[in-house]
């Protein structure tokens, strides 16, 4: 997992490093990383002599990094042009560039060249940016490498100006920063590369940890057990799905199909009669589950949480339930059990606050998070949630004694003890109807599989493991969005089509 620090924390470590190593040596080290990233971006498309790299240069150290990087690139034979976007610039770096590559032009003098740039290095503003500067508009299709932070992005909050410079890649220095993974940032930064510059963060507690594809893979490997081989379907895991209504017949189908596509041992469905016939057609692998069978399964679960002795090993509750007529009795019984459950959509409207023995994951989006807060007696605006998502997700985690996944372009996973993880998938295409139902199917499957939860007897899953598995499900979901978008437009059904291949990439 990648530690994430606030700008203040990065500034504090930077000050220590400057006192040890000197400011210019740090800047040169940052510039070398930036130059290497520029070369890597151009490697497939242009030889040094053909490529024109333009640096957009600002007034502070960010501009200094950009100028030193251009200097290195000029020394390696690239054509370069430095365009100063503000009246002042970093004096030593300006001199260094001028001695190797000639004079620096002002933006208005050299703006025309932007349309023939192979690559633009955005070194106007970095972590010192305050919202409100006027930023240059780049020709459509310009490839942009951001130095530390895209200009126009507030690196403390993740809020971006309308004219923010959209990057294909961002090389950020020292450490991953909160503002690079919050609010608008995932839609702005492109791929982020952290150049640590050997900064020493050992005495500083990170604000949170980012779970990316590699770290999700590592977490899954840590949790996966050898007991997986040759198991009976009941041992593999049975998911009980309580979902659907005449009003929303599709949601239950999507969750069911997603769980089946993940390879669930068995899926048992408690849905209204009129939905069951559609469901049996959409997912013939499913087996219906009536009220009595649920009571029996829950009674058996008091002796066996998983395996042949238990008819169900985990639950998914909520997709497509009509909130005016939820099957409250059945759901309340499941909430009383100690079997893991993922609760989404209308299920969130009936989940109780207070202590609970059940390992639960609630998966609200921002509006549902506000509803959960209101039910717990806390009134906040959407803007307040946007400003401080971890704080408000933590409130819900504590009030409902559950792991909470706040869904969005950046997703936050928070445990009742306040521990938290961030998943930043930037797959805007996932904002499509039914995509959340699929996440419930993926997570439901994962909670039903003992080789991931480690539930073999009566010992249930810990909140920290639940939090990590939830983050993995969110990463898989994000990757699913990206992979599907590469093939064309995204719909929930097309996401499910890609699910087996994406699961395979994560070792399933
Ligand atoms: N923090 C680190 O670990 C390191 C930082 N370095 C670089 O240093 C940068 C930070 O340097 P600075 O503190 O000089 O900050 P910046 O270079 O981001 O910019 C600060 C300058 O921009 C001006 N400014 C900010 N917002 C403005 C607005 N809206 N309108 C007009 N002017 C505005 C400020 O007045 C100030 O002059 C980092 O982003 C990074 O590129 C690297 O050189 C080395 C390592």
TrEMBL record:
Binding site for AMP: 407-411, 436
Cofactor note: Binds 1 potassium ion per subunit.
Key word NAD present: yes
Annotated ranges, domain YjeF C-terminal: 216-506
Assigned EC number: 4.2.1.136
Cited InterPro entries: CARKD, Nnr, Ribokinase-like, YjeF_N_dom, YjeF_N_dom_sf
Keyword Nucleotide-binding carried by entry: yes
Residues noted as binding (6S)-NADPHX in the record, renumbered to the chain: 251, 320, 365, 437
Domain spans labelled YjeF N-terminal: 5-205
Pfam families: Carb_kinase, YjeF_N
Catalytic function, reaction form: (6R)-NADHX = (6S)-NADHX; (6S)-NADPHX + ADP = AMP + phosphate + NADPH + H(+); (6R)-NADPHX = (6S)-NADPHX; (6S)-NADHX + ADP = AMP + phosphate + NADH + H(+)
Named cofactor requirement(s): Mg(2+); K(+)
Subunit structure as annotated in this protein's UniProt entry: Homotetramer.
Family membership: In the C-terminal section; belongs to the NnrD/CARKD family. In the N-terminal section; belongs to the NnrE/AIBP family.
Function description: Bifunctional enzyme that catalyzes the epimerization of the S- and R-forms of NAD(P)HX and the dehydration of the S-form of NAD(P)HX at the expense of ADP, which is converted to AMP. This allows the repair of both epimers of NAD(P)HX, a damaged form of NAD(P)H that is a result of enzymatic or heat-dependent hydration. Catalyzes the dehydration of the S-form of NAD(P)HX at the expense of ADP, which is converted to AMP. Together with NAD(P)HX epimerase, which catalyzes the epimerization of the S- and R-forms, the enzyme allows the repair of both epimers of NAD(P)HX, a damaged form of NAD(P)H that is a result of enzymatic or heat-dependent hydration.
Protein's recorded name: ADP-dependent (S)-NAD(P)H-hydrate dehydratase
Gene that this sequence comes from: nnrD
């Amino acid at each position: 997992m990648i530690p994430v620090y606030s700008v203040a924390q990065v500034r504090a470590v930077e000050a220590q490093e400057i006192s040890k190593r000197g400011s210019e040596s740090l800047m040169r080290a940052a510039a070398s990383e930036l130059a290497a990233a520029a070369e890597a971006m151009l490697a497939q498309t242009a030889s040094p002599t053909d490529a024109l790299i333009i640096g957009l240069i600002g007034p502070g150290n960010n501009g200094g990094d950009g100028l030193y990087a251009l200097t290195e690139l000029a020394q390696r034979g690239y054509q370069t042009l430095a365009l100063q976007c503000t009246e002042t610039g970093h004096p030593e770096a300006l001199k260094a560039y001028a001695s190797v590559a000639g004079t620096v032009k002002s933006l208005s003098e050299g703006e025309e060249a932007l349309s023939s740039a192979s690559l633009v290095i955005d070194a106007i503003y970095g972590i010192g940016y305050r919202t409100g500067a006027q930023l240059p508009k780049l020709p459509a299709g310009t490839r942009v490498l951001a130095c530390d932070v895209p200009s126009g992005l507030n690196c403390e909050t993740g809020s971006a100006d309308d004219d923010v410079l959209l990057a294909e890649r961002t090389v950020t220095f020292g450490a991953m920063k909160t503002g690079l993974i919050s609010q608008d940032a995932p839609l702005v930064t492109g791929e982020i590369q952290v150049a640590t510059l050997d900064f020493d963060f050992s005495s500083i507690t990170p604000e949170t940890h980012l779970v990316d594809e590699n770290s999700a893979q590592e977490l899954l490997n840590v949790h996966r057990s050898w007991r997986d081989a040759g198991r009976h379907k009941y041992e593999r895991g049975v998911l009980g799905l309580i979902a659907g209504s005449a009003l929303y017949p599709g949601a239950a189908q999507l969750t069911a199909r997603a769980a089946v596509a993940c390879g669930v041992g068995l899926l048992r469905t408690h849905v209204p009669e009129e939905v069951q016939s559609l469901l049996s057609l959409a997912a013939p692998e499913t087996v219906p589950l009536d009220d009595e069978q649920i009571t029996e399964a829950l009674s058996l679960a008091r002796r066996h949480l998983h395996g042949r002795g238990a008819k169900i090993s985990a639950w998914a509750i909520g997709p497509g339930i009509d909130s005016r007529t939820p099957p409250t009795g059945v759901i309340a019984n499941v909430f009383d059990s100690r079997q893991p459950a993922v609760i989404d959509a209308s299920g969130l409207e009936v989940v109780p606050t207070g202590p609970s023995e059940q390992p639960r994951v609630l998966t609200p989006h921002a509006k549902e998070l506000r509803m959960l807060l209101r039910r717990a007696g806390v009134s906040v605006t959407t803007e307040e949630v946007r400003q401080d998502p971890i704080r408000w997700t933590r409130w819900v985690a504590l009030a409902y004694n559950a792991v909470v996944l706040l869904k969005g372009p950046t997703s936050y996973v928070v445990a009742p003890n306040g521990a938290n993880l961030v998943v930043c998938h930037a797959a805007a295409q996932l904002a499509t109807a039914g995509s959340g139902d699929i996440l419930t199917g993926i997570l439901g499957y994962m909670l039903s599989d003992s080789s991931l939860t480690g539930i073999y007897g009566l010992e249930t899953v810990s909140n920290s493991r639940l939090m990590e598995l939830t983050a993995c499900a969110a990463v898989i979901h994000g990757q699913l969005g990206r992979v599907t978008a590469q093939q064309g437009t995204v719909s929930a059904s097309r996401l499910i089509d890609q699910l087996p291949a994406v699961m395979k990439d994560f070792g399933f």
